[in-house]
């Protein structure tokens, strides 16, 4: 199946060729025909599957073929997405796919002054990409009218829930015109999200791209058993021995992310952190520097990194294993996007073995273990953790048995070495 066979308008096809898209990804092949018919869609899929084009292309096709070209531009399509980074990225995709159509988009998000955004809105756009808080704010101030809206996309719905946006999202849905095409995307479908989808969607069709399909087929994975206090050294060792150029490192916490950046800096590895405590400018600069190859490593928390699309990502490192198994799938989805293959390495300390078990259950595979490295945790060494450093427990899961605090020898051994700390939650 080709994009041409799907019946996409010529200027959009031309842009896709420029983007280097030869064939639709599975989610595109399944979703585009449904959306071209004007039906609602429930897409159960993670980022990295080509989700943005799956909704972006048919929306642009409708707007292009129905465009009268007369009068001021009106907002005809709205995409609501949880993070600023994701919003910017979706805006960039629309700009790329629409470059020969004359259709304009703009992106609005919180954490920055609103004047630039309202100027763009005044000039007029057909497509608005927004995070929920700023969207509601500007709607309430009268800068945004959704009266002419024809298409609405709720992206990463489960993440909206995790970030506490669910009430804002419900308020936004309540303000949408009755007659519209609704698209709802979520990587997971907990009960609250199913309920929300029923509120938003009319007569819909469902497309599911299973995470295990996305990960198992494309991403080479491995796990290193390593004491917590040796994780930084292992990271430096891997970056150096693998001559890795673009490494995305996941930290469970903001504080932990900052510490990892410092430790990498000491080893002369250029790195920056992105997380919720960083200003929007700092986050965007770090992301741009990473994309431009000025940074070897970008250290991110899950929320800040969600959906971030980086070409040529050579390696994803799970410095901490996530306590929610689906998060692992999101993380490793950052590498091996679309057709590319990728590598994801995970560090697992004694406390995290239960998390590893849950992850392997979800992805239905045993992640190969690498034992030929200098910092191997063979289970005989004391657990290198302090009480307040412990990762949060998921679902009251019992902790791993081996919970002794570090002994004094161990402490001396590691004296003057920075260790990661995971005190605060994102
Ligand atoms: P997304 O899941 O929308 O974040 O897309 C993941 C990545 O796949 C992005 O870098 C897209 O540019 C790329 N992509 C999307 N669709 C295709 C396609 N049909 N062929 C090649 N790359 C694609």
Automatic annotation (TrEMBL):
* EC number(s) per entry: 3.6.4.13
State if ATP-binding is listed as a keyword.
yes
Region annotation (Disordered) maps to 371-426
In chain numbering, where does the motif Q motif fall? 1-29
Q: What one GO molecular function would you report for this record? A: hydrolase activity
Helicase ATP-binding domain residues are 32-207
- Where composition is biased (Low complexity), the residues are 393-411
Q: Where is the Helicase C-terminal domain?
A: 218-379
Q: Which GO terms describe its cellular component?
A: cytosol
Q: What class of enzyme is it?
A: hydrolase
Gene Ontology biological process: response to temperature stimulus; ribosome assembly
Against InterPro entries, the record matches this protein to: DEAD/DEAH_box_helicase_dom, DEAD/DEAH_RhlB, DEAD_box_RNA_helicase, Helicase_ATP-bd, Helicase_C-like, P-loop_NTPase, RNA_helicase_DEAD_Q_motif
The Basic residues compositionally biased stretches are: 412-426
Q: Which reaction does it catalyse?
A: ATP + H2O = ADP + phosphate + H(+)
Domain DEAD-box RNA helicase Q, chain residue ranges per copy: 1-29
From what superkingdom does this record's organism come?
Bacteria
- Family membership noted in the UniProt record: Belongs to the DEAD box helicase family.
What is the designated name of this protein?
DEAD-box ATP-dependent RNA helicase RhpA
What is the native source organism of this protein?
Cellulophaga tyrosinoxydans
């Amino acid at each position: 199946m080709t994009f041409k066979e799907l019946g996409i308008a010529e200027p959009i096809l031309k842009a896709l060729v420029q983007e280097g898209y030869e064939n639709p990804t599975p989610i595109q092949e399944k979703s585009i025909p449904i959306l071209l018919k004007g039906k609602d869609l429930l897409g159960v899929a993670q980022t990295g599957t080509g989700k943005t084009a799956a909704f972006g292309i048919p929306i642009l096709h409708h707007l292009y073929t129905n465009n009268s070209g007369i009068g001021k531009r009106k907002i005809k399509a709205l995409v609501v997405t949880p993070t600023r980074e994701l919003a910017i990225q979706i805006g960039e995709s629309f700009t790329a796919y629409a470059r020969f159509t004359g259709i304009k988009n703009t992106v609005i998000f919180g954490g920055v002054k609103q004047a630039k955004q309202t100027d763009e809105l005044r000039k007029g756009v057909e497509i608005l990409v927004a995070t929920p808080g700023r969207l509601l704010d500007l709607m309430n101030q009268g800068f945004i009218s959704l009266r002419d809206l024809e298409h609405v996309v709720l992206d990463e719905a489960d993440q909206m829930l995790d970030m506490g946006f669910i009430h804002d999202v419900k308020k936004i849905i309540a303000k949408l015109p009755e007659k519209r095409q609704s698209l709802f995307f979520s990587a997971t479908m907990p009960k609250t999200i199913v309920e929300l989808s029923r509120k938003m969607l009319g007569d819909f069709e469902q497309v599911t791209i299973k995470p295990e399909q996305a990960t198992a087929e494309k991403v080479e994975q491995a796990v290193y058993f390593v004491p917590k206090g040796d994780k930084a050294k292992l990271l430096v060792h891997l970056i150096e021995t693998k001559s890795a150029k673009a490494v995305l490192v996941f930290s469970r916490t903001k504080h932990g992310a900052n510490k990892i950046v410092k430790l990498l800096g000491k080893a002369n590895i250029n790195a920056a952190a992105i997380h919720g405590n960083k200003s929007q400018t700092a986050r965007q600069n770090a992301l741009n520097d990473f994309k431009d190859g000025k940074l070897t490593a970008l250290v991110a928390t899950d929320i800040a990194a969600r959906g971030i699309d980086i070409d040529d990502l050579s390696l994803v490192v799970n410095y901490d294993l996530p306590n929610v198994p689906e998060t692992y799938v999101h993380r490793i989805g950052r590498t091996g996007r679309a057709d590319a293959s990728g590598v994801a390495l995970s560090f697992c300390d004694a406390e995290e073995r239960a998390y590893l078990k849950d992850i392997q259950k979800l992805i239905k595979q045993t992640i190969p273990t690498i034992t030929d490295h200098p910092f191997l945790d063979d289970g005989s060494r004391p657990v290198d953790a302090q009480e307040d450093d412990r990762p949060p427990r998921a679902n009251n899961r019992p902790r791993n048995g081996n919970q002794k605090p570090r002994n004094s020898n161990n402490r001396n051994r590691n004296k003057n070495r920075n260790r990661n700390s995971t005190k605060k939650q994102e």
